[in-house]
Design brief:
By secondary structure, the protein is an alpha/beta fold. It is 46% helix and 14% strand. The radius of gyration is 18 Å and the shape is globular. The relative contact order is 0.10.
Length: 282
């Protein structure tokens, strides 16, 4: 199946990054969100992302106007009827995602794949809200999307071989390689990463060390490009909290208990890079 027009649901940090990556690789994009304010912010974030890539000589060279012309910014989800493939990037809450999948199932063409760009919610559960469980799959993109060549693909209980193969081909057209894993809350990456970040926050909460020193240990001792607290700021502390709460609810295991400092920072609006302040100032 040829995927020329891609629907992107949710124009936050991840949705904007996915839309930018798609436009840079020659796709037509329908970017949908609830308000024009969100879409205006996404347009600016895409501009910033393209300029940053040009500044550092990364990514394909493409005129900014040409790229933006490939993206249809809209609040009308009925326009997704034109999509050949849909990627959902909504907030990590079942109460938000479930009605989206029910609606997508009625709007999108019957054979269209619905891909969940989710951090922790099981793909099988999302597929249960549709009549096309075999055509629902997970694609866990990494942030920033245009700069990360690898993604985690999650196969739900009913996801077909054809859906997996078509998704692999689609990702190749986006310039992405992938690793396919079985469905489980948090999958592989976030089941490990969220515990690491949460424990790093506990170290800060207990005043064992500072954010800079915690991160430096991971960078200097283990060769990580970013430490766990820098990574948390990049992902967004609100997303970290929602993801680890999904893991705790899913496994009924207190090892996923969110650090009180994480809750306090989220309540205070200190969400990381996107708010200008997290464990570091931006």
């Amino acid at each position: 199946m040829e995927c020329k027009t891609i629907g992107v649901v949710g124009a936050g940090v991840m949705g904007a990054g996915v839309a930018q990556n798609l436009a840079q690789t020659g796709h037509e994009v329908i970017l949908v969100d609830l308000s024009q304010d969100i879409l205006t912010h996404a347009r600016q974030e895409i501009r910033n992302g393209v300029r940053a890539q040009a500044l550092f000589g990364r990514g394909p060279s493409l005129d900014l106007k040409t790229l933006l012309d490939r993206i249809r910014f809209t609040t009308d989800d009925q326009e997704l009827a034109d999509a050949d493939y849909v990627i959902e990037n909504a907030t990590e809450k079942w109460s938000i995602k479930e009605p989206i999948y029910r609606r997508l199932d009625t709007i999108c063409k019957p054979n269209v794949i619905l891909a969940a760009n989710t951090s922790a919610i099981p793909i099988t559960r999302l597929a249960s809200a549709t009549s096309r469980a075999a055509r629902v799959i997970g694609i866990h993109f990494m942030n920033p999307v245009p700069q990360k060549p690898m993604v985690e693909v999650i196969r739900g209980y009913h996801t077909s071989d054809q859906t997996v193969q078509e998704t692999k081909s689609f990702l190749l057209a986006m310039g992405k390689d992938c690793v396919v894993v079985k469905d489980s809350p948090g999958f592989v990456s976030n089941r490990v990463l969220m515990l690491t970040i949460n424990e790093a926050i506990f170290l800060l909460h207990e005043q064992v060390s500072t954010p800079a020193d915690i991160d430096q240990i991971f960078k200097s001792c283990f060769g990580h490009k970013m430490g766990p607290l820098e990574t948390a700021d990049l992902i967004g502390l609100d997303t970290i909290l929602l993801s680890i709460e999904v893991l705790r609810d899913s496994f009924s295991d207190d090892k996923y208990r969110p650090c009180p400092l994480l809750r306090k920072m989220v309540d205070a609006g200190l969400h990381g890079r996107k708010s200008g302040q997290g464990f570091y100032s931006y």
